[in-house]
Each structure stands twice: as structure tokens, then as C-alpha cells.
């Protein structure tokens, strides 16, 4: 950043008739000094910032534990303990949270052009998260809520196609459209299973339909692929009973109030249509189930 912005600042500050050699020298000095000052500031402050973040997280943890112990009589035993068969050898929640942060930082932060995420490593992370959630010995509401949020953010990024997934069987990344779709949908199925069976805190599904996460879908090059994966995710959420079609329609209605490209407005209309069809299907299934119960 300093190397890019330093020369720009020097060109603004120095007069236009400055010779090229003087300009290059001044740019180099400015960039070097700015980099040194940035490094000095980071060395002096980064430890304090980390300590502050850890202390705030610890204070929240203590507060949540106090509330939990106060209401212990109201909390089912399954929420506090894992199963009798558990051997307590699952990865610790802090390790899984750190891996999720690293994964999200590769996607959303500055990265090298050849920096990718192995899709097998991603699926392995989701399986280990499943083990962590099923072993309740070291997990608490605060860290579980954080993990739930990370998984929702991950699903949004997978749908938007902005995670640089790689395939070890190919040279660098996915070259086959069909294999990419298959891999994405497999990861989304793992997430749906986690949300349905393993999380014991409310999962913030509304983040999927936030303006920020939907904007990733619009900015991507392959919108058709994104729309297919978004449809797959929405169907999964409704079929697994994680969200009602009325909720999704409400979120999409809010999104339609924003200024979007015209082609994405067609996507919003398509979502409404799909939700209506899903609602009709679920209603028919409920009617058939009720009739079957009466018959029995």
C-alpha cells in the first residue's frame, strides 16, 4: 500500500517541472519512510490490540457463563454435556474458529494471485467442525454463535463463487463447470446438515440475504452459476425446515428496495416465484400427510 500510494502523494506535492530522476528518488524515500513508520506502529500497537480483543471476548464469555449457570435448571442436560459415547478428542472450538478466520481472510482480504483454497481441505474443516459441535465439553454459547456466523458467511461466499477453490487433481483450479457445481453443492449439503443437526444456538440465516453478501453475487463474473447455487441453498433451507418460505420472501422483498442491476432484478422476481412454488409444494405435502394420518 505504501509503495503504491507513496509515489501518488509525491506527484501531487512536487511541482510539475520536477525532473524524472528527482521524482523517482523522492518517491522511493517517501515509500520507504511510510513503510518504516507503518511497521513501527504495528510493532508498538498490535500486541495491545490483540490483548484488548482477547479481554473483550473473555469478558463476554464470563458474562454468558454467568447467565448460563444462573439458568442451569432451565437448560436441558444435552446442551451442557456431550453424549456418553464421546471420547472428547474433537478439535477445540478455538482452533476451528481460527481456521475459519484464516479461510475467510483468504477470500475477503488481500491475497496473492495464486493463493487458493483446496476444496478437500474445506470439506475436512466442515467435518471437524461437526465433531467439535458434537463434543460439548469445551464449547460455550459465545464461540458456538461465532462458528454459526462463520458458516453462514462461508455459505454466502461459496454461492457467490468468490472463494478461490482449487482441485489437486487439476493443475490449479476447477476447469470443468460440472465438477465445480458438484463440489460446491457437496459443501453446501455439509453446511445444511450442520445447521440442522449440530448447532444448538440460533443460526443467523438472515446474513445470507444481507445487502453485503448479495452484492458478492452481483459482482462475480459467473452470475448464472451463482444463481444456480443460490437456488440450491434456498431449496435446502426450506426442505430441511431451517427457514420458512415466507421469511425468505420477506428478506428478498427488502432487497428489492435497493438499487440493483436490471438483470439481478429478474433474479429477485425468480426467487419470489420459486418461493411460491415451494410454499405450494409444502402445503400439498402437509395435506397429504394429514389425510394419511386420518386414514390410519
Automatic annotation (TrEMBL):
- Name of the protein in its database record: Codanin-1 C-terminal domain-containing protein
Species of origin reads: Scyliorhinus torazame (Cloudy catshark)
* GO CC, any one term: nucleus
Q: Would you say which domain of life the source belongs to?
A: Eukaryota
From the record, what ranges are coiled-coil?
Answer: none
Q: Which InterPro entries match?
A: Codanin-1
Per the record, the GO terms for biological process are: chromatin organization
